[in-house]
C-alpha cells in the first residue's frame, strides 16, 4: 500500500519537482557562464546568483512540497484524499516519506550542481584548486580533527534537522486545517507555523542554558567542551570557536512530536477547507 501511495505522490509532484530542478540547473549554468570571463561586475553577480541557488534549492523544494501537501490533503483535491478507504496515518506516512525522499534527492542534485558552479569559479580565476583537489584537501582537514563517530553524528544531526523541519511544515498544515482554525483557509497553517516557530526558538534558547555543551578543540581534535552562553553573549568567553549542540535536542524532539501529532490528526479525519 505504501508503495502504491508513494507512486501516486510522485506522479502528482514530478512536474513541480522537475521544473524547480530544471530552473536550478539553468540558473547555476548561467551563473557559471557569467563568472567564467572574469569580468568584475558580472562575476560578482554570478557568484552570488549561483551560491543563492545552491543554498536555496532544497529549502525551496521543502516549502513547495509543504504547500502541495496542504493542497492535496486539505484543499480541493483533499476531499478525494480524505475519503480514501485507507487509514489516515498510512496516507500521512506515505506523504511524509515521499517528501523526505525528494528532499534527499534534492541534496544529491545540489552536490551534482557544484562542479558546474566550480567550473565557472575556476575559469574566472576565483579559485586556485581544481574541484577534486579542493575536496581532497577539505576531507583531509576534516578527518584530521573530527573522529568517525563525531562525523557520523554530524551527518545524522543534519538529516534529523531537515526531517524535523519538514515535520513542522506538515504539522502546521494539518493542525491549521482542524476546526476552528481552518476557517482562516491557508492562513490557518501559516498561523500555526509562526506559533510553532516561536515556541521552537524559546525552547532552543532555554536548551543553551540547560545543556551547556558544544563542539570545540580538545587537544588535537574536536570534541565536547563546555559552552557558556552567558559568557558568549557578554563577551567573557575565552574562545568563540565553539559550536553549541544544545539546540539539537529541542528541535529533534519537536520534530518527533510533530510527526506523532500529525499522524493523530490524520486518523481523526480533520475537517476540510
UniProtKB/TrEMBL annotation:
The chain crosses the membrane at residues 15-36, 42-67, 96-118, 138-163, 184-211, 242-260. Keywords: Membrane, Transmembrane, Transmembrane helix. This is ABC-2 family transporter protein. It comes from Brevibacterium jeotgali.
Amino acid at each position: 500500500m505504501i508503495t502504491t501511495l508513494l507512486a501516486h505522490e510522485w506522479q502528482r509532484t514530478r512536474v513541480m519537482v522537475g521544473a524547480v530542478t530544471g530552473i536550478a540547473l539553468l540558473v547555476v549554468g548561467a551563473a557559471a557562464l557569467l563568472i567564467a570571463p572574469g569580468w568584475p561586475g558580472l562575476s560578482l553577480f554570478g557568484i552570488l546568483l549561483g551560491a543563492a541557488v545552491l543554498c536555496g534549492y532544497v529549502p525551496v523544494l521543502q516549502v513547495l512540497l509543504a504547500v502541495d501537501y496542504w493542497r492535496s490533503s486539505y484543499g480541493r483535491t483533499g476531499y478525494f484524499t480524505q475519503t480514501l478507504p485507507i487509514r489516515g496515518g498510512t496516507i500521512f506516512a506515505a506523504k511524509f516519506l515521499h517528501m523526505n525522499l525528494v528532499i534527499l534527492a534534492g541534496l544529491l542534485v545540489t552536490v551534482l550542481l557544484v562542479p558546474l558552479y566550480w567550473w565557472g569559479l575556476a575559469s574566472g580565476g576565483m579559485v586556485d584548486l581544481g574541484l577534486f583537489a579542493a575536496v581532497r584537501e577539505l576531507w583531509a582537514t576534516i578527518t584530521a580533527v573530527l573522529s568517525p563517530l563525531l562525523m557520523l553524528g554530524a551527518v545524522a544531526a543534519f538529516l534529523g534537522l531537515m526531517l524535523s523541519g519538514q515535520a513542522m511544515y506538515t504539522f502546521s498544515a494539518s493542525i491549521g486545517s482542524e476546526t476552528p482554525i481552518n476557517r482562516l483557509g491557508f492562513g490557518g497553517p501559516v498561523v500555526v507555523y509562526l506559533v510553532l516557530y516561536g515556541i521552537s526558538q524559546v525552547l532552543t534558547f532555554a536548551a543553551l542554558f540547560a545543556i551547556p555543551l558544544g563542539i570545540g578543540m580538545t587537544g588535537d581534535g574536536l570534541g565536547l567542551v563546555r559552552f557558556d552562553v552567558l559568557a558568549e553573549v557578554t563577551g567573557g568567553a575565552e574562545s568563540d570557536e565553539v559550536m553549541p549542540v544544545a539546540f539539537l535536542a529541542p528541535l529533534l524532539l519537536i520534530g518527533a512530536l510533530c510527526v506523532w501529532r500529525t499522524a493523530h490528526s490524520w486518523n481523526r479525519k480533520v475537517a476540510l477547507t
